Structure formats: C-alpha cells, structure tokens
Amino acid sequence: MGGRRLLRRGAAVSDPVVAARGVTLTRGDRAVLDGLSFEVPADARLLVRGESGAGKSSLFEVLGLLATPDGGRVEVHGEDAARLPERERAALRRDHFGFVFQDFRLIDDLSAYENARVPQEHAGETDEAWLDTLFERLGIEPLADRRPPTLSGGERQRVAIARALANRPSVILADEPTGQLDPSTTDDVLATLASVHEEFTRALVVVSHDPRIAGRFDDVHVLSDGRIRPE
Ligand SMILES: Nc1ncnc2c1ncn2[C@@H]1O[C@H](COP(=O)(O)OP(=O)(O)OP(=O)(O)O)[C@@H](O)[C@H]1O
C-alpha cells in the first residue's frame, strides 16, 4: 500500500481528517464565519488564534459537529457531515473527535477515572488498559478515584485530556484549554498536549486568544473577518 494506510475506500492518511469548505455561520445578525475554508491534516499540531469575538468558539463547534453551519461543507474523512441528522453527527463526534473545553466540563459526581471512561461507555466499548495507559502517561494515576471538585485546574484539565483520548479519536479539538490556568499550569498543560500529540499521533487543533501559547506552535493560523489564513 506504499505507506498509505486505507481509512476507507479511496481515503488515505495524507487526507485531511476534518475540512471546512466555504463554511458560513451567522450568529445574531453577524456572519461570524464567512466562506471559511480550512483543512486539518491527519498529523496536524496547529493553533488557530484570533481576537475575542473573532469566532474561535464558533469554529470549534462547527469543526467538531457541535453546531450546524448555514452553508458550506464540514467533511470528516472526506464525507460531508455538516447536515447529517443529529444521531449520526453524535456518532461521528464520539468516534472521531476528542474535545477539551476551557471549563473542563467534568461531571462532579463521578471520579476522575469514571469521567474519562464516559466516551467509552457511550460507544459501548470499555478499554480499561487504554485508560490506564492514559492516566499513567498524563501523570494522573494517583488521582483516579478523586472527584473533580477536589482537583486543581491543571489536574482537571489532564483528566479532560484523558477523556478526550478515551476513544482514540482522529483529532483532538481544544477550545481555550489554558483559559482558566495560571502561567505555570498553562506550561504544563501545553507540554502535556504536545506530548499526547507526539506519542499518540492524533491531529491536535487548539483555538485560543491566549498570547502565552502562540510561541508553542509552529503552525499558527489567524481567524479574522470570518476567514482563516496562515500566520
Ligand atoms: N448565541 C449567540 N447569539 C448571538 N451572537 C452570538 C451567539 N454566540 C456567539 N455570538 C457572537 O458571535 C461572535 C463570535 O463568538 P465566538 O464565541 O465564536 O468568538 P470567540 O472568538 O470564541 O470569542 P472569545 O475569545 O471572546 O471567547 C461574537 O461576536 C459573539 O457575540
């Protein structure tokens, strides 16, 4: 196969895992995304930066099939998923995306380990060996039985990263993953995301306005006026 591992008939590793093509999204009376096109290569490790209000969260939601654009295509492994029924979008989200949110979105009543296991339960496929590996690599094994309210911000974000990887997604999408963290914890979490990217070879897309993190990415894109351009 000449190094081109088939993902589905006609698709290969070198194809984008996610692509937006001519996407428009209006919020209120504003075209937040305005004919935006953007490809996420399978080995991407990239940052999309933009001013507050530029539409970063909107882009995150559209790329992650959490919001439906008004126009254009959002392709997952080459298939247009933008306007599929919600059930099918949910299945694609579960199987192909890992989400890391600024506010962690962990369930307070579950332990760290149970939180990280949630995506596997949704998929009906438990793989505790993989979860154990993630907890070990992320340095949160000793926290497995603790509940989120007893964890620091950086610890919670690591649990959220473990959850994002639980189903071995093709792409990790992170929306302001360091927004609630102090500078040294920000460094830790960015280093963790970078090593996760290297070790588990998933595409990593971070959207952020945090100027502290721009220097951590070689591949930086700017979102402004509803479009994306390389920096
Ligand atoms: N539900 C909504 N109704 C109306 N306008 C909205 C809604 N959600 C977002 N917007 C507007 O869309 C624009 C883009 O918002 P978005 O949250 O995507 O930007 P952002 O770049 O993530 O901003 P920030 O960095 O401040 O979080 C903003 O002008 C915002 O006010």
From TrEMBL:
Gene Ontology terms, MF aspect: ATP binding; ATP hydrolysis activity; transmembrane transporter activity
Protein name per Swiss-Prot or TrEMBL: ABC transporter ATP-binding protein
Keyword Transport assigned: yes
Domain of life: Archaea
Signal peptide: none
Record keywords, A-Z: ATP-binding, Nucleotide-binding, Transport
GO cellular component: plasma membrane
Taxonomy of the source species: Archaea, Methanobacteriati, Methanobacteriota, Stenosarchaea group, Halobacteria
Domain called ABC transporter: residue spans: 18-231
Pfam families given in the database record: ABC_tran
